[in-house]
């Protein structure tokens, strides 16, 4: 570890003497080279690290329909103060195959009470003065049974309570609802169902949501997390993954048709990250309820003004796990899933799947334009299956742009093989992934300078610098990783005629339930933690511009000379030129930005993102590393700057 940090110190120029010669960066505003794709900067969502259930999906009850492998996982039962009761998990597989289990509760509590308690996802984040909406499907209530709900804090004290009417629970399931308001904040609260009296009742889909979700949709998404995504101004949302798409085996793969329709009819499965890693990072209580399903993903994309980019299984399970593949003569159902998804997203309400979308509340098509075939597959098995997909999809839906993969690594035999084979099939968009040390990102800022300008578009679909860290989960998202990613991103932007889509990965991680790091956003049950990497992504995505323009020092792009990196764009709508500069070195860097042929007005902003320590990082609730913006006065056609050591600087100049 110490040798690696010393190597990074040399790469970052920490040991170098101060730069005395001023670098002159000439930005050719009058030479637009290409249009910046509106999908240049997007987000990649995968249900890893409790990003969906327990994260962005605002449901607070874990195992709400008793469909976990252990049906009462997350629930505790208590005879209280002389009351007594019992529960029985029953199964109606023949009647409700996708949600067969329910709970029969028998109560004898004319004195005291019988209590069912749910622990939530590492507790429930409850905020003072917030209203929470409870619902349960109930039927066959007998006797004089009464039900109340309560939220309790970590000491067991009640912080909110409400009565729940059971008189509507007849022979068929009825939605029984109540609401309560908390009088205190607690990050690890519990929900109690308190039964008194005597009788029985059958329960399913026990649920608790905050009243104020994203756009205040009942049963919706966690507002603070979606707000962070909205602030990124993403051009696309890639979903649902990731390795989630593949599954550990084909039975565990993501099947979009099981995630749409009524929430209570969606078939829960074990999350493939459940036991992927050894203790203490395994999560045996990690399941996918699909409350966040494909309809909700499309709706989120629409809310964010982003293109939906779904990825579908191509008949291959994760090759790092089982490597299971479906036989070629049994691949048709997988291809049909793709055709049906296009109909669900884009078909009118007279079609089978378009009708379902309309019934769910969205009569108008979502206007999907992209579709990914497979995630990180490799080898001839993938090429064969990808070709089978493209033969059908290009014939029936030429309007859809297909995304293919060249595997999990940015180089090597698998990568080279796939590029060679896929090029024969004339791919439209090729997805490349880079999980590499920080020094790789510095060394590869010019990766796409020599890519074929007549070849397929590149999707930098998953990338993150994996560097040194300490014991705190957020520590791998240190300033070193963010700084080196920014240097790499100047190369992505400079080659925006080839690189048309980019996204950091993974997107989110629960502080108490993570499996993988680094991650763009850390959160706990109450708060969020945008990382330095998040702020880098936001600086680029919020300043994407409309056209790429040359930014040259001594006639060449800055790709690490004197530890400097740069890219520039023109925004013809705002009438601005935006220059992004990274000083990866350990000393201040004097730099002059020239705009030949253009005169700057007195309007210019300078935004700087940096930290005093290369290993510094943000913690949840304490975002100490964040950008700072000031107004400056550009001088005619040039602006003199001093880039702080180990910094990311964005200069925005308004032009006459």
UniProtKB/TrEMBL annotation:
Reactions catalysed, as given in the entry: Hydrolysis of terminal non-reducing alpha-L-arabinofuranoside residues in alpha-L-arabinosides
Kinase listed as a keyword: no
UniProt-recorded Gene Ontology molecular function terms: alpha-L-arabinofuranosidase activity
Signal sequence region: 1-21
Occurrences of domain Alpha-L-arabinofuranosidase C-terminal (ranges): 461-647
Gene3D superfamilies tied to this protein: Galactose-binding domain-like, Glycosidases, Golgi alpha-mannosidase II
UniProt record, GO biological process: L-arabinose metabolic process
EC assignment: 3.2.1.55
Disulfide bond among keywords: no
Keywords: Glycoprotein, Hydrolase, Signal
Family: Belongs to the glycosyl hydrolase 51 family.
The name this protein goes by in its record: non-reducing end alpha-L-arabinofuranosidase
């Amino acid at each position: 570890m110490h040798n690696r940090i010393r190597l990074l110190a040399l790469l970052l120029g920490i040991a170098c003497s101060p730069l005395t010669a001023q670098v002159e960066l000439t930005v050719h505003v009058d030479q637009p080279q290409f249009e910046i794709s509106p999908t240049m900067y997007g987000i990649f969502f995968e249900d890893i690290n409790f990003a969906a259930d327990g994260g962005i999906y605002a449901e607070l009850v874990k195992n709400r329909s008793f469909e976990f492998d252990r049906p009462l996982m997350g629930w505790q039962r208590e005879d209280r103060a002389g009351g007594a009761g019992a529960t029985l998990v029953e199964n109606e597989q023949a009647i409700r195959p996708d949600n067969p289990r329910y709970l029969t509760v028998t109560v004898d509590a004319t004195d005291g009470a019988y209590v069912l308690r749910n622990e939530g996802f590492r507790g429930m984040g409850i905020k003072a003065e917030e209203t929470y909406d409870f619902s349960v499907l109930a039927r066959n209530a007998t006797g004089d049974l009464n039900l109340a709900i309560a939220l309790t804090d970590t000491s067991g004290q009640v912080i909110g309570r409400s009565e729940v009417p059971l008189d509507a629970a007849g022979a068929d399931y009825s939605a029984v609802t109540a609401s309560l308001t908390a009088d205190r904040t607690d990050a690890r609260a519990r929900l109690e169902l308190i039964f008194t009296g005597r009788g029985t009742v059958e329960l399913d889909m026990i649920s608790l949501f905050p009243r104020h979700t994203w756009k205040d949709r009942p049963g919706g998404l966690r507002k603070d997390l979606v707000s962070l995504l909205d602030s990124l101004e993403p051009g696309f949302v890639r979903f649902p993954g990731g390795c989630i798409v593949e599954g550990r085996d084909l039975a565990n793969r993501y099947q979009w048709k099981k995630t749409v329709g009524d929430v209570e009819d969606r078939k829960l499965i074990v999350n493939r990250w459940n036991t992927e890693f050894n203790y203490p990072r395994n999560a045996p209580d990690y399941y996918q309820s699909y409350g966040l399903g494909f309809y909700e993903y499309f709706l989120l994309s629409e809310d964010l003004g982003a293109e939906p980019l779904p990825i579908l299984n191509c008949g291959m399970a994760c090759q790092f796990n089982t490597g299971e593949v479906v036989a070629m003569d049994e691949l048709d159902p997988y291809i049909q899933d793709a055709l049906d998804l296009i109909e669900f997203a884009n078909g009118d309400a007279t079609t089978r799947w378009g009708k379902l979308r309309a019934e769910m509340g969205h009569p108008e098509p979502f206007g999907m334009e992209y579709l990914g075939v497979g995630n990180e597959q490799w080898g001839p098995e993938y090429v064969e299956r990808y070709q089978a997909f493209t033969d059908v999809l290009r014939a029936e839906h030429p309007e859809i742009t297909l995304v293919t993969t060249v595997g999990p690594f940015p180089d090597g035999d698998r990568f080279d093989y796939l590029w060679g084979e896929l090029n024969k099939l004339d791919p439209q968009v090729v997805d490349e992934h880079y999980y590499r040390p920080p020094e790789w990102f510095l060394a590869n800022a010019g990766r796409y300078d020599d890519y074929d300008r007549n070849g397929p578009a590149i999707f930098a679909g998953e990338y993150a610098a994996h560097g040194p860290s300490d014991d705190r989960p957020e520590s791998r998202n240190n300033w070193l990783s963010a700084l080196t990613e920014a240097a790499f991103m100047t190369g992505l932007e400079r080659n925006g005629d080839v690189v048309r889509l980019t996204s950091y990965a993974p997107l989110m991680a629960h502080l108490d339930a993570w499996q993988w790091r680094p991650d763009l956003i850390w959160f706990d049950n109450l708060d969020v933690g945008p990382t330095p990497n998040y702020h880098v992504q936001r600086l680029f995505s919020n300043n994407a511009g409309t056209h790429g323009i040359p930014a040259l020092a001594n006639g060449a792009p800055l790709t690490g000379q004197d530890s400097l990196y740069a890219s520039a764009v023109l925004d013809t709508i705002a009438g601005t030129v935006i220059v992004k500069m990274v000083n990866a070195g350990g000393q201040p860097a004097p730099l002059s930005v020239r705009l030949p042929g253009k005169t700057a007005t007195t309007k210019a902003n300078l935004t700087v993102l940096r930290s005093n320590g290369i290993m510094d990082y943000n913690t949840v609730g304490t975002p100490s590393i964040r950008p700072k913006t000031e107004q400056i006065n550009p001088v005619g056609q040039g602006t003199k700057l001093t880039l702080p050591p180990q910094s990311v600087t964005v200069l925005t100049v308004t032009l006459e």
